[in-house]
Specification:
Chain lengths: 432, 432
């Protein structure tokens, strides 16, 4: 890059797999990366562009000239082209779209019209659909005629009626093992999935996972076949959705991980601000017992123990509950079982750790009363943590809120309040 | 189920997709589920058995008679059969394996010989391999002859030499669009992945994701083609691996989520025990300043604020770092950039929240010195949290440890110690 040897760079990248080439470019310092993309210009293959990570791809699209972006849009499958279009600012997007062929432009504009994170955005409009009276031989001959015009990768063909309504699916593996003269309608199977353009990507991912799909047809509101989603796009969604919940529980926004300090601060400060409020709520509880703390300083030494262990127990239950809700395992009879299990586990762990912390405190301070107060508060906090760990996310779900986003704050505040209140309250009653 | 109408139950289940049938069975109370499986016995289709969630599948395998398990093993693809075999106790496994055909038995025993979570365990030994001098027409005719003997689902065929070494891959989509007389060696492509039987499933998942694969060939140590992994098996692995790291950071074992109280307690108590130790380390730090706390009780009220916010800031950085390491984004120059970004973000957020908590404390206690001490401790803790959030996981990785498992405890203990030490230490210097 330093020597501005564009031709060598372009050749090297073209010889590699796009994913490997993208890795190579990302390994460059960010400035050198921009420079490299600028040098390459229109010679940066579009399949490398799409393999870049978000922040790099956005930078690349920023740096590339309009003509290079337009030709990338032209080469890519429609789902990937939409991703590039999303990166562009409104004005520039308009300008570039105007230069495209009317047909391509209409298709891309339709893709952008679907809501973000919907099946419509994820699907590609390139797929293979054939009428049901065709035979296996007919379908194969047709594919041979089309040759390079077919989508690069597909795993099944769709059998449709004249109104473009899906009648069935024929796996390529089935097509291969069936004699030429068999009619497609005899070997097609019912679609397992039922995906419409406005379906949320989380639901789409769920269907892919449940039915072990490699690809699935997408229908519009009128029931016409309009696109196909392939599993390679869903793999990322499945991972994102699994991470999203857990990120929320860890007070991290899924947008985090960017390269800039401003973005990082912006992603984290709101969670810290919420934490600021809840921390002062806990302080408020402690301040109620100022007099007691003044007389027994050991309480100040031990109270973080109750809060830390209680909070940990609560968040353990919470994590399991939130994932179970996301994977739809907490429905019907399973809810009652889960609440019972959490309560009993809370009692068992509460007893174990009540005795544990009590013994440590006894050895440390040689004060039986103090140890009993500590152990009792620990048990109470564990039980409370067990219930809030499962009831808070279930309650939020019932209210229609996302159980992952707000519940962590709720549960930790609840256990902190309980920890300080029970420990310092009991101490006031017993020790003074 | 109550009416013991086995025949009706078997018929209903058979008409549904196995995944839906499994959902239906799982919706039953656990006892009724066992009873239903017992009633069905050998009539429980093996493809439903494999769709059940772990705890239900284990229960079902426990309840089913040996003959039913043996016939399920016979019907299933080898990767699924291995899953069932894993559920069996050693003695029973031996007994059932002895009743199988010698060939099937040898194949299953070989599958079990691979390490858990390795590519060998994930792969199926059913795949389509053809010699390179064959033409497209030859391959299709061969597939038609085999018909039902072919694997149920496959997306590509493998081209091999006489020693069973992989020469190339032909996508079914490519096979379909190519004229009959073209030789396979002319249309085959180089395999993108390079998977051996002893490769860890995390690495396999990484290759599937990177190259957008639907299936991939698996080679043994000698380079011979021995199996195939399909994306539907990888989808679960990708999700598991994404969750595993984050679960560890949330002090939850990935084995959690079981139905029994004993399992739940066993999964969570170890994390709580570690937390017990770290909590008492924090208490130890506080106890160093017993004298100061005795004189200024407000310190006891405010010290959890410093610890809570500092811990939160540290774990935010930690989560992002651990995921970036897992996704191999923290390599080379990116490490330096990430450390710089975390340090700067720590300073910015530290300043913001130092002023924030300082102001709240000022309004509450009308004590300028106390507020300045609180703010300064907050800033120091944020900076410390920023560095430990990224350097602890990077250090653990360098030492060859899993950065996700132990780092959460380290980081929280480090920030707690810093929070209490800086706040109470500064207070001792300034306020007394």
């Amino acid at each position: 890059v330093d020597e501005r040897d564009t031709r060598w760079l372009a050749r090297t990248l073209q010889r590699m797999h796009p994913a490997d080439a993208a890795d190579l470019l990302e390994a460059l310092p960010f400035d050198a990366f921009s420079e490299a993309v600028e040098l390459l210009g229109g010679e940066l293959p579009s399949d490398i562009l799409i393999e870049l990570r978000d922040s790099y791809r956005e930078e690349a699209v920023d740096v590339l000239p309009d003509t290079a972006v337009a030709s990338a849009l032209d080469e890519l499958d429609s789902d990937d082209a939409t991703v590039i279009l999303e990166d562009l600012e409104d004005e520039r997007r308009e300008r570039i779209l105007e230069d495209l062929e009317p047909f391509d432009r209409a298709q891309l504009e339709r893709g952008l019209a679907y809501e973000e994170e919907s099946a419509g955005r994820l699907m590609q409009t390139e797929f293979v659909a054939v009428p049901e009276y065709w035979t296996v031989g007919h379908a194969i001959d047709h594919a041979r005629e089309l040759g390079e015009e077919l989508p690069e990768v597909f795993y099944e063909i769709y059998v449709i009626d004249p109104a473009y309504r899906l009648q069935g699916i024929v796996q390529l593996a089935t097509l291969m093992r069936t004699p030429r003269d068999v009619q497609l309608s005899d070997i097609m199977t019912d679609p397992l999935s039922d995906i419409r353009t406005d379906m949320d990507q989380e639901e789409v991912a769920f269907q892919f996972q449940k039915y072990s799909l490699a690809s699935a047809p997408v229908k519009d509101a009128a029931g016409r076949l309009v696109g196909m989603i392939t599993v390679d796009d869903m793999v990322d969604v499945i991972q994102e959705e699994a991470e999203e919940d857990l990120f929320s529980l860890l007070n991290v926004s899924s947008a985090d991980g960017a390269d800039s300090v401003v973005d990082t601060v912006r992603a984290r400060a709101p969670w810290l601000a919420v934490n600021l409020v809840t921390a002062f709520i806990a302080s408020g509880i402690i301040s109620l017992f100022e007099g007691t703390l003044n007389q027994v300083v050991q309480l100040a030494i031990l109270m973080p123990v109750v809060a830390a262990l209680g909070g940990n127990a609560g968040s353990q239950g919470l994590v399991v509950a939130v994932r179970a809700i996301a994977e739809r395992q907490l429905e019907g009879d399973a809810v009652r079982r889960a609440i019972l299990r959490e309560a009993l586990s809370g009692i068992v762990n509460g007893l174990l750790f009540a005795v544990g912390v009590g013994l440590v405190a006894l050895v440390w301070f040689h004060d039986v009363k103090l140890s009993v107060v500590l152990g009792t508060a620990m048990l109470a906090t564990f039980l409370w943590a067990a219930f809030s760990g499962i009831l808070v996310p279930l309650g939020l779900k019932k209210l229609g809120a996302d159980p992952a986003v707000a519940s962590s704050v709720f549960v930790l505040t609840l256990t902190d309040v309980m920890a300080f209140f029970s420990f310092l309250g009991l101490a006031t009653l017993v020790l003074l």
